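Quiz preparation item.
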């Protein structure tokens, strides 16, 4: 056979395009990590929205400036004091705003649950 009939070609093309769209949609929903609990997922959303601008993990790219705040990866690997972390989030520090008027206690719980997944 010299060339594939055009209807088949069209179908293959369509399947490829539809496939790539569904991959993109999945990535955008970002909600489908089966290893994460509901509250870790909620904490991740809040962290990305409110904390990651200053606490993004360091990128391996010398053209990108360091994050404004320290990386919080691995914070709970050792003996991180959860009460102190909670206090920092609520009251802030000289260079970090406090979130006591923005978050409910349950939301801070979710953020801390997510921070524990940052190895
Ligand atoms: C405006 C930038 C900024 C934002 C937004 C921000 N932080 Fe910070 N954060 C900092 C800086 C800077 C420090 C380091 C302390 C200092 O220099 O005052 C810090 C310190 C911390 C620490 C203490 C780290 C340690 O090793 O003791 C924790 C925990 C923390 N931030 C959590 C959060 C969480 C959770 C959020 C989102 C709810 C958040 N931060 C949002 C800038 C920020």
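Solution:
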């Amino acid at each position: 056979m010299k060339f594939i009939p055009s209807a088949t070609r069209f179908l293959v093309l369509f399947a490829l395009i539809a496939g790539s769209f569904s991959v993109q949609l999945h990535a955008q929903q970002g909600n489908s990590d089966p290893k994460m609990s509901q509250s870790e997922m909620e904490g991740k959303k809040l962290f990305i929205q409110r904390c990651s601008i200053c606490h993004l993990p360091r990128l391996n790219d010398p053209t990108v400036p360091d994050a404004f705040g320290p990386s919080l990866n691995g914070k709970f690997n050792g003996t991180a004091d959860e009460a102190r972390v909670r206090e920092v989030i609520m009251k802030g520090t000289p260079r970090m705003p406090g979130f006591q008027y923005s978050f409910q206690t349950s939301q801070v719980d979710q953020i801390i649950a997510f921070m524990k997944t940052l190895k």
